[in-house]
Sequence to fold (731 residues):
Amino acid sequence: MSLRKDYVRPIDFKHGRIDMTHGAGGRVAAQLIDELFARAFDNEYLRQGHDGALLPLPGAGRLVVATDGHVISPLFFPGGDIGALAVHGTVNDVAMSGAMPLYLAVSFIIEEGFALADLRRIVESMAAAARAAGVPIVTGDTKVVEQGKGDGLFISSTGIGVAPPGLTINGRQARVGDAVLVSGTLGEHGVAVMSLRESLEFETAIVSDSAALHRLVQAMLQALPDPSLLHVLRDPTRGGLATTLNEITRQSQVGMLLREADIPVLPQVAAACELLGLDPLYVANEGKLVAICAPEAAEPLLAAMRAHPLGQGAQRIGTVIEDANGFVQMDTRFGGRRVVDWLSGEQLPRIC
Amino acid sequence: MKYIAEYRDGEQARHIAAKIAAEVRPGHSYRFMEFCGGHTHAIARYGIAGLLPDSVRMIHGPGCPVCVLPIGRIDLAIHLALERGVILCTYGDTMRVPASDGLSLIQAKARGADVRMVYSATDALALAGKHPEREVVFLAIGFETTTPPTALVLRAAHARAVRNFSVLCCHVLTPAAITHILESAAVRQLGTVPIDGFIGPAHVSIVIGAQPYAYFAEEYRKPVVIAGFEPLDVMQGILMLVRQVNAGRAVVENEFSRAVTPEGNVAAQDLVSQVFELRESFEWRGLGDVPYSALKIRTAYAAWDAERKFGLHYASVPDHKHCECGAILRGVKRPTDCKLFGTVCTPETPMGSCMVSNEGACAAHYAYGRFRDIPVVTA
Fold:
């Protein structure tokens, strides 16, 4: 007697919702993983089907690992969603040490009742972002929490990359006289997300700048005769440019002097910030980087950035100066000089 | 940005600065109080102090709504949120004001209180509609600028008979506070706070008009120049004050004529007087009890008055004994005169209210002007 093949009811991706069984590890959970996650993310490492992915050892250099939790609200926003953001954010964190990102691991915490249609949209967007970045998602996990114990969906992602031997790019390398560069206009991500917030909804054409920056970083490194001229890379996400620069001055024990007139901000972002009482210098970016380099590297780096689609708006915005207090100062358009301080409190909660 | 950039133009600023420098009399000092936190913020953010001659000194006034809220008022809100289970809504900065027992509304939230930040009074009323089973209380703060929106939602709640909504009214009045400062011993007799003139409020004046200041100019012989919140407005306002002082005049002048009229927004004034009446006395942080300086909700709207609805009784709570917010709000001290400034009191861990709002004298100086206190090597 031959066994009849089990009937498996197809997942209702149109009207279905996540329930507790989707996280229970039984057949229902396995089906969701097979039909949604494994299918969307498909690659040779994920196909191994182990608890952990076995990966080839990269060649020479140093391993770089970065991890990032994503709790953005709302999950879908102009220019992206939590899925693409989880890929871009982690790829960028790896890339900011000058490394080439190689693999991603992702974990989903889903609230009971979450619409499967939304989950599919997010997973597919994540798969597309990973594919476009050329960084496969090699392992993952899903958990379901009871209704009210999570807010829809949280995604945590970990990236692994490899930095070439001898390359040291980090926040402690800024030196007096260095140039401070940004790859483009600031504040779009935060304002795009903000525009959808409950009680604040306003119509805007501003879209998030969410993007993977590793290829821009590679182009920048290749533009330099000696990659060690590039001292610091950082993506100014939460807390914006101001917070990132303050982190760097603290780590490197230097100061900075910026010129407000040189800091690129789209007029519509400036207008939205004016209206909301925000300062674009503190608003999050998800597809921009700050580079601090030896003065002679500034021009070649700017040229390389501007030649890349993600760095067209690159500008030199200031100079690293000596300052034991670690102040970031700015010459304002108005003619005064002021401190650009750390962000205090939460300007925009749950922006990434 | 059109209509904004024009008021932040550096070349114009230098032009006005040169005029101020040329017109101040040698050996004469000019001390002007900017009443509003909005002006304090602009002065710090755009580095206006650095553009003025040494003989012109700006004294920060008490016009920061978050800063003048006394601890006891925040305690009432925390009590409602923690003990009475209400949804407590308020404007952003109010959440961080330190109150009794090391608590603030944001810390009460972390202890399980349902505290929500809203961008407008209307949002608070909308929350009541969304949660008919819960009591929603709007902690209403601010000067004459934020009072009309609160009046509007009270009228709407009354008209729609929304029973689960009420307002904890902490609205205060600008002219009463200015009188209080001018009447204070420090200004009148001791001369410890010599004030030669006022930069008059911007947005407040849009509502109340320019007329209410005539009394100060006449009775106390102090020039008043109503100025906008943009940096060029402030510079021009200072120049106009210098000219009045030089000419020995003391009148109300209106630099902000693009928005402020002599009589103000009469519709808003009518609305406010329908819903609110004067409180006999209200405690201000820094100024103490100031007679007829605040508003309370009229009896017709008693059902929406959180103080009546929840039987709340105000109890005065003294500030931290080393906190100089009071003296700073009266213009007697500067932020850097306070022992706590920048040490245990920072925007992250504010001890006093002036460090909370970005309109507060301490927070503005900490965020934008601190480098002037500490020598730095510049490029």
Notes: The interface with chain A takes residues 1, 4, 8-10, 13-14, 17, 44-48, 50-51, 96, 118-120, 123, 126, 231, 346-348, 363, 366-371, 374, 376-379 of chain B (CB under 8 Å).
